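sorry for the late reply, my laptop died twice this morning and i had to redo everyting from scratch. anyway the thing you sent over, i finally got around to it. pasting the sequence first so we're on the same page, its 147 residues, then the predicted structure underneath. double check i copied it right bc i was rushing
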Amino acid sequence: MVLLYRMPSSTRGNAVGVFKAYEKSQKDPEIGEFVTYLINWVAGTKLIFIVLIIGIVITGGKETKVFSVIALIFSIMTFYSQLYPRLKHMDTEHQLSVSGYSKSLAIMIPQRSERKGTIMMLPLPSECRESKMRYPVPWGGKGGNAS
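ok and here's the structure:
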């Protein structure tokens, strides 16, 4: 979040400097302003989540904490259903300045890996392909094996 606010062109963390298009966007004032707005919007949203989670952990009751965990699981699911496929595509199309960034980011997001004995939230896409298990999708549709 700090990187997004203070150093958006960084290639560390999840700042946007990793995207080759970011540098191009800064050359066009209109597009640059739009991209800067979106970056700050994302950083602000992250700030809201962090502050809410801290408040819930400190003052929330048991039920509130359970619903908060459900909300976090849902938000992580949206990453894997919407953002990760696009990021992976951009990585394979060499649109990122750091090759393999999509894999690094996928590892940083909580997942569940029964093979490795860790308790995490979602299966890795590679685990779904290997096991050929089908996972239901909460947003409708037929579901699939996350590949």
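The radius of gyration is 17 Å.
thats about all i looked at so far, will dig more tmrw
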